[in-house]
Design brief:
globular; four-stranded mixed beta sheet; alpha/beta; binds pyridoxal-5'-phosphate; 12 helices; 16 strands
Amino acid sequence: MLDLKRQYDPLHQELLQAVGEVLETQQFILGEPVAAFERAAAGQLGVAHAIGCSSGTDALWLGLAAAGIGPGDGVVTTPFSFFASVSAILRTGATPVLADIYPGTFNLCPAQVESVIDRTPAVPIRAILPVDLYGQCADWTSFARLGREHGLRLIEDAAQAWGAESNGVKAGGFGDIAAFSFYPTKNLSAAGDAGLVTTNSDELAERAKMLRQHGMRRRYYHDAVGWNARLDGMQAAILTVKLKYISGWNDARRSAAERYHALFAATGLAESGLYPTHGIVLPQEVRSTRHIWHQYVIRTGRRDALREFLTSRKIGSEIYYPVPLHMQEALKGLGYHEGSFPEAERAAREVLALPIFPELREDEQETVVAAIAEFLS
Ligand SMILES: Cc1ncc(COP(=O)(O)O)c(C=O)c1O
């Protein structure tokens, strides 16, 4: 599914040197290595501020908390994402309010969000938290309009979308504040847990910085109850090296996605429309967006059997995500049930992510597509 060693091998001297420099300076937490990464990251994304932190989950929490979201507030988000999109909301004391996805992109559907807001749930809605799922930006034009019309904060979960764009704006630059994850399987990855908050607001940046260090602006004077959510120097140094290569890696992902499209088209199994019948539905890039193909996710009605077949051929695949968030045991308390979000539930039954990473070879893609064609025909 993913061979990180292929990324590491050509970089290993450069990475060892960068880690060695941190060891020499002994600046292990925050300090210059983190500040240098933050400057480079903000420059690359075209945002005013980047604040390094300990994980994508903490970045989401910091973003929400910096934006003043807390107990009594409702935050609308998607039921089809990684758990942290919802758990970070709960961690602030706010209430997640879910709205269904658009089946063509798997991203939160603005029309569904609007109807949830109009139905005025028990908690007043204060924010929307769309996710740029699989590396494709959510419909930020519509969310910006909703935010303006209803006076809502926009929090962007860009954990899977470093380098993705929509209408010339890079992921991380939408909404009030955004969160990235550098978990090792992410397209821009650390050698452990790490994350980043981005924002164009001086005020939110200052609050996020304060909150990542136990609410301290001055050492041992605590202005708010924050958390230890700091980034360490070695992860920052590794990320600074990788920042130089990420644009090329994303281009390679885009080429791999195009190759999958062409190979599947040649099999005659690719179906038009939103849902599969006998074949597969290929993932789509929305016009005016630049997908970075963090995942290449097909839909098929025979997903589980296909996955078993691929495993028997030693071909990796993954299901992101097999259980929608409203049906997770831990989130039963939100009061939803099976049937609450039919699109998310159907996606959870049909999606299958195929291997995609910059170093994936052409012959490997041919093997994947040939195996799928053999199974389906
Ligand atoms: C959409 C999404 N949000 C949040 C996270 C949380 O990031 P982390 O694992 O770095 O805490 C992830 C990554 O796992 C993710 O994919």
